[in-house]
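Our platform keeps sequence and structure together, in a single record for each protein. Such a record has a labelled line for the sequence and another for the backbone structure tokens. The tokens are whole numbers drawn from a learned vocabulary of local backbone shapes. The remainder of this section carries one protein's record, kept here as part of the documentation:
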Amino acid sequence: MNKFLFFLCMPGLLFGVSACNGILSDIYDTPSEQFVASHGFVSHDETTGRGRISLDMKSYGAWTYLDFAQLRATTLSIPETLSGEWDGRSGYSYYQVTLPSTFKHHRTLPTDSMPTPEKWDIALHHYDVRTNGGAAFETPYTSLEQLLREGNRAQLSAQPFTPDTWTTHHCYYDLTGIYEYYIGYRHSWCNLVLSRWMDMNVSQPPPTYTLSRRVYLVRFADGSMAALHFPDHISPSGNKGHVTIDYIYPY
């Protein structure tokens, strides 16, 4: 995912305002006030394991956790403040970004740790994806049908799967300082392979969104696997930030 910003914005923007409800959020995703998105598991075939998930992921201020066994989606807000003793890493940091990939740390604001459901397999934050102690592999296939037709499960399962990485400058939090390339990022685990499903390129405005079109295999902590395909990030009514996931579970 292209996480670097290079475009002109109106001057006078204030630092420190959360992008989840900030004045720049509509630059990336322009939701309709009348649009009510479905959110969660919308179909599942017990015989084939095939299903579809539909998620409203416009906000930068929450993670949505998916439990494939229970077909459950749980959305939890990211803590904004610190109410007790700091765990030493939860929070968000501001960086001065120099293209293409230099981050100069300016300050860190500690927060409470992120709450999670009792059981979950993967979680999404806007276009970022993490696993719950799992790992991911990007296949060469561009549809679940092609995976089933051409893929060899034993060979694919033996490929190197990539676990999550702890990062302090990958998940967007505050975009109000982008005119100065001063950007706030959430501290979080993130699966950098699985998050490649979307490339958000804003090097030349307006932003362009490019789907990888690849099928991803995710090995969960219990050893089971799911095959995931992200066919779209736009709702039927044309709103960006509405993520569709087609899946096979278990694969």
Summary: Residues 1-37 have pLDDT under 50 and may be disordered. The longest helix spans residues 144-150. The chain has one domain: 25-248. The first strand starts at residue 40 and ends at 44.
